[in-house]
Amino acid sequence: MSFTPELLKQSIKPFIHAPCLWVAYSGGCDSHVLLHSLVTLRSEIIPEIKAIHINHGLSPFANEWEEHCRKTCEALNVHYVAIKVNAKAKGSSPEEAARHARYAEWKKLLNKNEVLLLAHHQDDQAETVLIQLMRGSGVKGLAAMPMKQSFSRGLLCRPMLGFLREEIVSYAVEHSLNWIDDPSNFDTDYDRNFLRHDVVPLLETRWPALKKTLSRTASHQADANQLLTELAFQDWHHIHENNRIKISELVKLSEKRQRNVLRYWIADICELILPDTVHLQRILDEVLTAAEDANPEVIWRGGEVRRYQGMLYAQEKLKEGTHLLNLKWENLESPIQINTNGLKISAKTLIGKGLSQEKLKNREISIRTRQGGETCRPLGRGQTHQLKKLFQEWRIPPWERAVVPLIFVGDELAQVLGYCCSETFAAVENEPGWLIE
Predict the structure, then answer these.
(1) What is the CATH number of domain 242-315?
(2) Closest CA to 418 of 394, 382, 386
(3) 5-216: in CATH 3.40.50.620
């Protein structure tokens, strides 16, 4: 089967009513063919076509490639966006950091119902299955790359997964396209390149239909993964409360279903990187079986799971020092940003709500986090309590208490943000107050 725009049109048919089709355009052969083909179909498809180029800055030629892509899009009369990213994140390989960086930019770029098209093909799919096999991945990993998936406010799609690399290159040659060949694509120190240049050609001498067969394997695994996801959703429905897992309900499931629903919870509900098999088993062995008064945790590169009062919590790994906060709030009419966790705190005027504007007038207002020993007289209680006791009453996990913002007037605690106002500073009926959120 040869690659043609007409065949591509069948793959993008479900998206003809999208407001925009974005092409992730690297300048390489595959993405150039995808972009060129869409332009060929421009009179037959409804959505606007745009191109997004991510400059990772990893190659000395990165800026030249960005300019090449700009000129190509100009010649094709395609709207072009180029974004430079930092692909040198600490603790990650350049390839991994580059992937995270471009996906982050794509997510920010996509508006509601827009579609991002990637130029992955059947060879890429086969290589991905082999890589996942070498990693010992389960069903989800072996399902490799889906044809389409929800992404940001729209969809991410791979309309060329049914075509071989050689078919795509043949189209590019036939239409005299000028594309970029990244020298790093031939460096077999990288796993994917090693498979592409050394392993797959050898396997094809014995199994000529290897790529097609591996792509079929990915399809079968995707079906199996869908069934496991549906089962996990059913289990999740019975065992969760406010996106946390009730341990008493989880332990009623078989261990295999426990692992299945934990993967679903961590990846799909909490949107964290999945832990490997060892860390997942540690959650079952160490966290579920811990004593009621213990606060065990399992931490991996992509997140952490903790236990508190019979519930499992999953979240990004807490950063050291993020709880150290003491900011002056000079003007309550201007929101204040807490850079350590991205929280934005603002105040608006409401009658009879929040903190009394009169009692705050000409007083120093600050936002702090807990240091220990704080007391508060919650509105309606009529007595003062230790903040520690209030946190316990509100069932706030110990690790979250250190990051709850506290509003101080001078050195007096006026509000525990999200939980209570102090009776001392609360606005009374018909009095202007600052409602801080």
Answers:
(1) 1.20.59.20
(2) 394
(3) yes
